[in-house]
Records
---
Amino acid sequence: MGELVDFFIRSRHFILFVLLEVLCFYFIINTSNYWGVTYFNTSNRYAAKVLAWSNAANEYARLREVNADLALENQRLNAQITQLLQSKPAAPAAYQADSTFAKRFKFTVAKVLNNTTQLANNYITIDKGTDDGIRPGMAVISPTGLVGKVSVCSPHFSYIISILHSEFLVSSRLVKANEIGSSKWDGMNPRLIKMIDVRRDKPVEKGDSVVTSGFSLTFPPGILIGRVRTTGVQPNQTFHDLTVDLATDFSNLAFVYVIENLLQPEQEKLEKQIEKEK
């Protein structure tokens, strides 16, 4: 306490000077309209800047929470869209899928913890595992398109084989051309993928959407893979040479959705039973 008193005593002239300056400034503002208006406008301008910086900092701090909320909302919307597509498949008008079939896909949102894009065989790690109902073989998509397939699980984490993997192959369909083929990464550009086994007698246009065909127990039909970037013909082959822009930006992947086919065990059991009887 004594040191504080000593400080004020030593600095009494400077403190008095500051108090007098403040008092003069106060009188100038209150006795002159010009300086009063100038002070008011200047103070408001700087106060607005400080408030804008404060709001920007608060919004940035809430981005993680906002992203998580958006991921949950996308999970709900993906489930509704898939259910709608399954209830009205591309089939004769007389066909009507039952409610169980239409609701066969379940979506679980997960956060990406690790992700590679420059290897020959790329992988992704997410923060959901067997305790969350995740198991090997489940499909994985992003808010914009296909991602890969679950390979290995622990109670709290899962290891996903990315579509950017030398052994990943998915049955695909060209929307406009209505032609079935397969999508496979050639190990070159992480933004591009090849679509193979599309017959050359079928016309293919640039910009045509490539989606999952539905001929799979893993992926729901209609999941966007990408759009045709270039078309050509493989030398001495009867197939198109198609390069596709991937719909998913793997360099900026934050959340994914793991898809469970609730009817997959039943279908697999039936198919295995038929194979044994042949």
---
Amino acid sequence: MTGPNLGAGAAGRAARPVQRRGLLWAVFVTVVILTALAFFAIGRLSGAPQQISDDGPDAGFARDMQVHHAQAVEMALIIRDTSTNEEIRAVAYDIATTQQHQKGQMFAWLQGWGLSQAGKGAPMAWMGAGSGDHGQSHGASAAAAPQSQMEGMATPEQMQALRAASGTEADRLFTDLMIRHHQGGVAMATAAVNLAETARVRDFAAGLVEAQSAEILALQDLRARL
């Protein structure tokens, strides 16, 4: 009887360190999770609205690119309703859905920063926010268009012409306007990559440069085939 009892006691003593290690590991994991949650909460609190300047590049980009995207969506919906070219219609649908979604993202940024959707400064003024070589990298593009009009935007007359056009004429006008519109968008996004203070805006803008540059090439190929 003594042997089995001693064996059971030894097994119990051997099991206790394993149990203690398991308990310590569980406590460690819990502490790590709680610490991570605490830092997340601190990060949310430290991201106070006043940390993003109302007239800085992040807010300026979010506002101006929303306006820029809004016109692209409008042009895309116009041609999608009038064109009989299935490729044009597919491109238009993709532009409308993608840019409408992106508009929502930028709208949410401004809300999260506690800033108004409309800025006090002139459009594209934020593109001159840098100093020295950092800000001069796109000074030429910022000066290429009046401060009252964002780069690549179609004029009211061009928008009316698109609404009135039909058939191949409408398809060609749409591609011409959208190529120019995307080129302006790439210039604005490139400025944001270089000037934005937050990684969120820089990463978003870099993705926009890549996507719209690819779309420009696709639109140019499509235009050549019309």
---
Amino acid sequence: MTSSGMQRPGGRTARVRTAVLKAAEDALVEVGFAGLDLGDIARRAEVGRTTVYRRWGSVGALLADVLTDMAEQSLPRARTGSLHEDLRANARLVQRTLADPRQGALFRAVLLAATCDPAAAEALHRFYRTRVDEWAPCVTEAVERGELPPGTDPAEVVRAVSAPLYYRMLTTPDPLDEPTADRAAAAAESAARAGAFRPAGPEVI
């Protein structure tokens, strides 16, 4: 994780990027993807419109950079030595992010943007590939320890942990709390231990 108190190399360029990305996140939370405007984002960031248009060029490209930055800022995966604890840590990290008033609103806006903007969709897919790749080794290690059947698909297990939390956020007004996260992790773990995420073999007749 990149600490928020650290400045990436680049001087003024890095400061401009940070200011513009924060302004873009603020705008996404306040007005959603449909209301995004590069000129308004430049005003919010207190930088020149020309700078924003020259560097990003389109709302989709800017949103892609927002997601790149989010991936860079994400916390590293847990390394507890236990599949149960690793998956629970993953679920609770997702839960805290989606339940946060700002981060939850930001993710809802990004998900909506991905349904209508190809650049946003590709950026979203890249973001989740990064996060799944970060957490997949906890499943690989569980297979090596004998906790899971050989051939278990690590990426599918990680996705199975998060999927119920996103579904709950998007389809219900119910609170997204730690017990909900723990249930999602436990369900994914049980399915993985039962072999649900192994490649399908020949049908037995």
---
Amino acid sequence: MSDNKPLDDKVILVTGAGGGIGRAIAIEAAKAGAAVVINDIGASLDGRRESSAAAQDVVAEIEKIGGRAVANGDDVSDPDGASTMVRQATDTYGRLDAVVNNAGILRDGFFHKMSYQDFDAVVKVHLYGTFNVSRAAADVMREQGTGSLIHMTSTSGLIGNLAQANYSAAKLGITALSKSMALDLQRWNIRSNCIAPFAWSRMTSSIKVDSPEQEARVNRMKEMRPEKIAPLAMFLASNEGADTTGQVFAVRNNEIFLMSQPRPLRSAHRGEGWDFDSVAQHAIPALKPDYMPLTVSGDVFSWDPV
């Protein structure tokens, strides 16, 4: 029996890896043989810097189990910071095989109360951060002729949630960005995929509990550990994941979902073209049975996690 591990000789950069899902993926990747760059700026949930110790703490955990890791404190929302963390990976380990774009912040609020600053800050970290790190990594991966880009999206963007316009917009934007990267980079054997994770972490700890139903939902989420996300991320980073690209997955405890992507549902055709009356009397009544309801993530994933 071979002693080879699935990520032997791989180098992986995980952003926002000082805690939660990023930390779990980084530690499991190290156990699977990868050398890991642990990026974290030590920020509070809303993105304000607090401490730079988080990344170094994860490095110490990995070294304690015999793994290889280095800490990085650059900001994903800064293109120069993204370039620096990619360069640190190649300077330290000679290559970069996978990126996990996990860094994120939250500034929740109802749309009619949301400030420009809170919208901008969240989009900068999630969407621009994903672009910045992936763009810097793409140059290295093109030279290598291989690589894997893995991005954390959310059902807040894929389905919808209350009071998260900034976060939802950024997360759905990431899925479109990922698809474009998958299309543009396939000639260099670089793949790009998204994961929508369900797990109790610092990001989900901000969920407002103002009803028994919300309390029950939060209690269910507390049972979903960040470590449950790691196996899929490691597969996507491995050689075995080489033919998986352009996909959107969700992980919910012991369930893995392949999520749909927008495609036509129903059509209405009128040979002579449309005017206001025919749209109102013909097109809309024909299309209306397939309207998407105003559901939130909890409505769609309504059963208890298994």
